UniProtKB/TrEMBL annotation:
InterPro entries: HAD-like_hydrolase_sf, HAD-like_sf, HAD-SF_hydro_IA, HAD-SF_hydro_IIIA, HAD_sf, PGPP1/Gep4. It holds the Pfam family Hydrolase. SUPFAM superfamilies: HAD-like (SSF56784). This is YqeG family HAD IIIA-type phosphatase.
C-alpha cells in the first residue's frame, strides 16, 4: 500500500470553501462531491442555506457539480432531488468506477475536475486511482452512519502514517 495514494492534494475545512475564482485559476470546470458528511450531514438530508447558496453560485458560474456516492440509488436520488444536481450512486469507492462514470456524465477530462470527500479510504483513494485531484474536507458532523465506522478506524491509522511522513495537516479556508 503506497502512502501517497491516500494523501489528499488539498485540505479544506468544508466543500463550501471552494470558491469560483480559485477553481477557475486551477482550470476546474467540474466538482465531484461525496454526499454524506461532505455535501450534507448524513443524518440531515435537507442541507443548509450555505449549501444551497454554494450550489447556486457554482451553477451561475458554469461549474458543474455531481454527487458521487457509495449509497444506493434511491437514497442518493432522494437526497439530491432538492439540490438539482446529477449523481452517481453505488460508486464503489475506493475503486475508480464511479469517478469514471461521473467524468462521462460531466463530459470532462480528469485534469478539469476535482473530487471532494470526507474520507481518505474511499474518496481520496478513488480520486487518485482515476487520476483526479482530490480535496479532503472535515466531516460536517462528528458521528457517522454505522457503515462508515470501520473506515474511520482504518483512516485514523492511515492519518498517523501520513503525519509521520508529511507532517501535521494544515486545513485551509480557501483552495
Amino acid at each position: 500500500m503506497k502512502l501517497v495514494n491516500y494523501k489528499p492534494d488539498y485540505l479544506l475545512e468544508a466543500v463550501y470553501n471552494l470558491d469560483v475564482e480559485n477553481l477557475k485559476k486551477k482550470d476546474i470546470r467540474g466538482i465531484m462531491v461525496d454526499l454524506d458528511n461532505t455535501l450534507i450531514a448524513w443524518n440531515n438530508p435537507d442541507g443548509t442555506p450555505e449549501l444551497h447558496q454554494w450550489l447556486k453560485t457554482m451553477r451561475e458560474n458554469d461549474i458543474k457539480v455531481i454527487v458521487v456516492s457509495n449509497n444506493k440509488h434511491e437514497r442518493v436520488q432522494r437526497a439530491v432531488a432538492k439540490f438539482d444536481v446529477d449523481f452517481v450512486s453505488r460508486a464503489m469507492k475506493p475503486f475508480a468506477w464511479g469517478i469514471h462514470k461521473a467524468l462521462t456524465k460531466l463530459e470532462e477530462e480528469p485534469d478539469h475536475v476535482i473530487m471532494v470527500g470526507d474520507q481518505l479510504m474511499t474518496d481520496i483513494r478513488a480520486a487518485h486511482r482515476a487520476g483526479v485531484r482530490s480535496i479532503l474536507v472535515k466531516q460536517l458532523v462528528a458521528s457517522d452512519a454505522w457503515s462508515t465506522k470501520f473506515n474511520r478506524w482504518r483512516e485514523r491509522r492511515m492519518w498517523k502514517k501520513l503525519v509521520r511522513r508529511y507532517g501535521q495537516p494544515e486545513w485551509k479556508k480557501r483552495l
